[in-house]
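Structure ticket #2291
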Amino acid sequence: MLHGLTFEVPRGSIVGLLGPSGCGKTTLIRSVVGVQIVKGGTVTVLGWPAGAPGLRTKVGYSTQTPAVYADLTVQENLRYFASVLGAPKGDVDRVISEVGLEDARRQVAASLSGGQLSRASLAIALLGTPEVIALDEPTVGLDPVLRQELWKLFYELAARGTTLLVSSHVMDEAAKCHRLLFIRDGYILADDTPQALRTRTGSEDLEEAFLRLISERQVTA
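Resolution: structure written out below.
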């Protein structure tokens, strides 16, 4: 459950949703994408209510659990979703290259490794020209080299004006984001740049900064 969250995300930025498992990151992402029932408050994306039909081709979403058809190949999955989204035909080759799945493009999804499945799901979110991309734990199970390559892609997307929401519980990825939302138990503990959070807490280590923010909340609660 989320409690009274209020924040805005500027276009062309990478915003990290950081916090332990179960803190509300996925619920928040689902609310932005428009697949979560919101009992109170409003969620607006690109000037539309979250989930509005007009956002279907403007918002990409990569779930924590890969969302692909197990009996189709990587290429067949992407062709199907490209057709649903009305994405250009050339997009399939583009996103396969961007996520590093060239060698597995004709491989049936059921035979992919966990990391390959995550990349296939990410590729679906990149189809078309989404203005907002929500990524739920996009680098879980990936090796350091691939994680570095994906973050390079995230920066390129942001430089082109795409807004990225990236959830993670891995604090070493926090420093890669332009801005951070530290979340715990459904509350936002902090909303600022990595450097500003370091300065505020007096800690260069962002994991330590997060722990200090938790302590501050417990003292003031």
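Closing remark: Strands lie at 14-18, 44-45, 48-49, 59-62, 132-136, 163-168, 179-184, 187-192.
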